[in-house]
Amino acid sequence: MLETTHEHPEWVKRRVARSFGVAEGDYLNISPTGVRGVWVRHGLTTHEARVAWAAKQPEAKYRVVCPSCHRSFLATGKPPFACPHCRVGGIHPR
Question: Residue 84 belongs to what domain range?
Answer without folding.
Answer: 58-94
